[in-house]
Specification:
Elements: E1 21-24, H1 25-29, H2 36-43, E2 47-50, E3 59-62, H3 67-76, H4 88-91, H5 98-106, E4 115-121, E5 127-133
Parallel strand pairs: 3-4
Antiparallel strand pairs: 1-2, 4-5
């Protein structure tokens, strides 16, 4: 059996946003037992940027290793659980494919100018996040 899928995708613009709030390695020294030089020598990181007001975000899309992790994130960040899009019940732990699958599954829910945070975590201390303004209405 062959499947035929039409993919309609295009890059319409490129832009950027860097949050003004910072968390430096020196700041981390006062929170955890570490020091700035060690962090930089291991990771190459001098500082991180913080998105301090998650309430202005329309949706959160994050890696979904299991339901418990999602619930902890919602609780700790004090998020509205309706803003956290999930598809783990349909696919299980999809690891790096999670964000792409969430975008595909929920694309008709997004409206122009929705603010979306993508967060992904890997083995060890690897992670990445992006803040995106949805650029066009799909419907």
């Amino acid at each position: 059996m062959q499947f035929k899928t039409t993919i309609n995708a295009s890059i319409t613009t490129i832009g950027g946003y860097i949050p003004k709030d910072r968390l430096t390695n020196k700041d981390l020294e006062s929170i955890v037992d570490t020091n700035s030089d060690w962090i930089q020598s291991i990771t190459g990181i001098k500082e991180q940027r913080l998105l301090k007001d998650p309430k202005k975000t329309t949706f959160f899309l994050a890696i979904q290793a299991n339901e418990r992790i999602i619930e902890v994130i919602v609780k700790r960040m004090k998020l509205n659980s309706n803003k956290v899009l999930k598809n783990i019940v349909n696919y299980g732990n999809t690891i790096a494919a999670t964000i792409s699958l969430l975008l595909y599954d929920f694309q008709n829910q997004f409206k122009k100018e929705d603010k979306i945070v993508f967060a992904n975590f890997g083995g060890g201390y690897t992670w990445g996040a992006a803040y995106y303004a949805w650029s066009k209405q799909v419907n």
